[in-house]
Sequence to fold (282 residues):
Amino acid sequence: MGIVGMIITGIGVLFLLLGNFGILRLPDVYNRIQAGTKCTTFGAFFTIVGIGILEPNWFWKCLLIAAFVLITNPISSHAIARASKIIGVLLCDKSVIDKTEEFKNEKGV
Amino acid sequence: MAKSSVKNESSVKNFLYLFIFMMLIWLALTSSLHWQELIVGCVVSIVITFFLNSNYQPLGLPSLNLIKIFYIFIYLIVLFIEIVKANFDVAYRVLHPKMPIKPGVVIIKTSLRQDIAKLILANSITLTPGTFTLDIKKDKLLIHWIYVRSENIEDSTKLIGARFEKYLGKIFS
Fold:
């Protein structure tokens, strides 16, 4: 049981590390949010569940915290990204397409 | 008369769902089945449900039945697989020495109507490989894509949104 918990926590920590690499290496704020959101959600989820398996008394509490992280993390990153789009942070030079102007004129149904 | 009784029935149902949800959270927090804990949990859940019930009704959560619960399970499994794929995708792009990225901002369409369904769709898109939601307006979503494979609306809708929309459409029908 202890070994399983440690392996799962280890996987979570590994993905948090990869998320950090992403934030350092990717060129602009939007790509960094991509790495930041995915790796921190997955990494935090696995780290917390792993701790829950290491300490069986905390398992259900840890699962509750993990579910909360899974629900709220995308919302917070969406808020950051939308705010930087509204302020007008530019995309990096590598970008191939930007439909923001078209979206602004969109009426919708 | 008949209409009001239908409304009554659905509000009782909503009350029960919210009560069961609160009770499950209580059980997870205390993680014990001692009868004293259960009684306190029941009282607290009823009080919270009583105050929150009217706030949750405008959200338009769907009424549940067995088929919908089945689709919710399938949806969660699909979502989990996509999250795992997303992480390996990001890991590959970050660790590759040349960084194979081709970022761009595209628009996709959705056929979902309820706000809560669109919220779940947007959150799912944020957690899946290489895409995340920047903005929503009516039936259009503004998506940032780390590796743009298609620039027109129909193809990107198929590539990004379709795999979730078919299940969400069933759950919220």
Observations:
- The longest helix of chain B spans residues 66-95.
- The interface with chain A takes residues 25, 27-29, 31, 83-84, 86-87, 90-91, 93-95, 99, 101-107, 122-123, 126-127, 130, 132-135, 137-140, 142, 144, 146, 148, 151 of chain B (CB under 8 Å).
- Strands of chain B lie at 104-109, 131-137, 140-145.
